[in-house]
Amino acid sequence: MRFKLILRPEKDRQHLLFNYQYPLMAWLYGLLHRADADYAAFLHQQGYAVPDRRKSFKHFTFSSLLIPRMEKPRPGDTYMVLRSREIELVVSFYLDRAAEGFVVGLFQNQRLSLFNQQHRADFVVERVETLPRTQAQVLESTPSSGPTSLIFSTLSPLVVAEKVRGLDQYLAPTDARYPALFALNLVDKYRSLVPDALPAMDAATAAQLVKFRLLPEQNRIKTRKIVIKEGKEAQTKVVGYHHFHFEVTAPPELLELGYLGGFGKYCANGMGCVEVVEKVPVASG
Predict the structure, then answer these.
(1) Third-level CATH fold of 2-133
(2) Equal fold, 2-133 vs 134-280
(3) pLDDT tens by residue, 84-100
(4) What is the pTM of this model?
(5) Which residues pair with 239 in a beta bridge?
(6) pLDDT tens string 46-64
(7) Using CB atoms within 10 A as the burial measure, which of 4, 35, 123, 177 is most buried?
(8) What is the CATH architecture assignment of 134-280?
(9) How far apart, in whole angstroms, are the C-alpha atoms of residue 28 and residue 273?
(10) Dihedrals φ, ψ of 269, to 5°?
(11) What's the chain look like in SS3?
């Protein structure tokens, strides 16, 4: 289930902090808690666990704010000055059909405040547009039809990392290790939902099932550094990459999961949100 929220700033020239992803995630959790406290607590405290791995996933994501107009930040600024009358946000959930009902109407007429100790921006949710689940053109296929290829573009930074001595080493999409780790992440996400559907895999095996290809002709890759829980003891510095197109060939149920729940890491913090550019025919044989 995907929504587009149209946000109206409460006044002009508000200061929006650059690291708005974490307070935006907290707002989303708050809405979920009011709608279904048990489900929100499950996501926040546990999530969907991967069998035999110390991993779990939330299976939701949201885009970066689409801000048509702002003042050019000055060197050293930690905020942007908003000049837009409307700002768009895409919110996307991978939910069981039975669970979708409680999300409907969740966002209508809500207020949103994004702030830290220095800066604050307040918004009203002007309207909510439900985006068709079939936008990905994935549901038109079935698992028996074999792999599907889709071209995606990023709506928020996409984070792929390799663990080295217990620490995440963030990879650019041009890195040779990126496709296999991208594939392994998506396979693990699917196994967290359907444990018996796929066996445990290493990255090389996952890359045979999920094939990632960066499209160099659309290459406008930009680096984005995000601080999660900024100013707190548990703050985490994450590096993602956005403004690029990529093709993924995989079973359609895995593509649907990535499209709705996000690709890569830290999706519930506003990473890995994508849109579909086109469906690509897959050669048979």
Answers:
(1) Alpha-Beta Plaits (3.30.70)
(2) yes
(3) 999 999 999 887 554 55
(4) 0.90
(5) 225
(6) 889 998 888 889 999 999 9
(7) 123
(8) 2-Layer Sandwich (3.30)
(9) 15
(10) -95, 15
(11) CEEEEEEEECCCCCEEECCCHHHHHHHHHHHHHHHCHHHHHHHHHCCEECCCCCCEECCEEECCCECCCEECCCCCCCEEEECCCCEEEEEEECCCHHHHHHHCCCCCCCEEEEECCCCEEEEEEEEEEEECHHHHCCCCCCHHHCCEEEEEEECCCEECEEEECCEEEECCCCCCCHHHHHHHHHHHHHHHHCCCCCCCCCHHHHHHHCEEEECHHHCCCEEEEEEECCCCCCCEEEEEEECCEEEEEECHHHHHHHHHHCCCECHHHCCCCEEEEEEECCCCC
State the greatest distance between any 2 C-alpha atoms of the chain, in Å, as a whole number.
59
Paired tokens of 246: 């990529």
Query: Burial letters for 180-207: b for 16+ Cβ neighbours within 10 Å, e otherwise?
Result: bbbbbbbbbbbbbbeeeebeebebeebb
Task: Write down the domain spans for the chain.
Answer: 2-133, 134-280
Residue 160 has φ and ψ, to the nearest 5°, of -130, 135
Q: Which tokens is 9 given?
A: 């700033």
Residue 98 carries which side chain, given as an amino acid letter?
A: A
Residue 271: name the closest of 233, 249, 239, 245 by CA: 239
